[in-house]
What we know:
Elements: H1 8-20, H2 23-30, H3 34-48, E1 53-56, E2 59-62, H4 64-88, E3 94-101, H5 102-109, H6 113-119, E4 123-130, E5 143-148, E6 155-159, E7 163-168, H7 179-189, E8 191-194, H8 199-207, E9 218-221, H9 224-232, E10 238-241, H10 242-250, E11 261-264, E12 267-273, H11 281-294
Parallel strand pairs: 3-4, 3-5, 8-9
Antiparallel strand pairs: 1-2, 5-12, 6-12, 7-10, 7-11
Amino acid sequence: MAQKVPPLQxxxxxxxxxRYESFAAAAKEIxxxxxxxxxxxxxxxEYLGFKMFERLPRGLRLTDMGRAYLxxxxxxxxxxxxxTLGLFGADEQKVLTVRVSTSFAxxxxxxxxxxxxxQYPHIDVRLYTAVWADxxxxxxxxxxxxxxxxxxxxWNVQRLTHETSILVSAQPMQQPMTVQDYLRQQAQSGIxxxxxxxxxxxxxxxxxxxxxxxxxxxxxxxxxxxxxELARNGLGATLVSQRFAxxxxxxxxxxxxxxxxxxxxxxxxxxxxxxxxxxxxxALLFKNWLCQRLAQPxxxx
Length: 301
């Protein structure tokens, strides 16, 4: 016989109380009295045979068992929300605000966002773009996409991409030479670097056995999109995310003079609010859709 699942209202009271660490605050959200929320949580505890909270003089604290149970409860509610919105739509038009870097919005989102709009016409997407996506101009964004190591406090973080940086240029190799000779030539003549990623060039040189005593010189820009445009206009070679470079390579605007690349530990992450802010249903839906859309592996380097 299948194991019985606790009543939904008990689980909802538990999740809200865990988020606010307070029965009173949870009661305001789910439109019950504080006593009713406390009773529902106690009923859940009796049903499961474990305490979910320590009752403190000022608020609540999850027990080890409550902390272990909470992620599964939240995921169940998120899955139910996404499935309901995805299958049945919404009663009214919804607005989803996404904060994202200019490069990712232009080179990764723009080519596929039409698919999302066709699939979910009841959701209007508003993109807030910036060079550095983790700047706090739009703290009210429903969802963010950032590049980094994934260590951001106060957010539910999920990795979107694993990155490899490749060398691209508008000009193919003019005469036959080894990868090492080509990289030395570019390092001496000046290359296009991306602010915050300057160390990748030195890593690339070391990867191919090249010792460079002096700093690599050339143009420096603050985003990948501009670096690609500078390269397209013949101002030098640049080392950029393979994912970002792909549209330029497929259109023939840029080429890979040599098959040089360097793996990147950082990646793009999708962030949803954590804590007392509840992720909007349309944000959960967009997150799931984008994760599936970007799960397709990039071409081999």
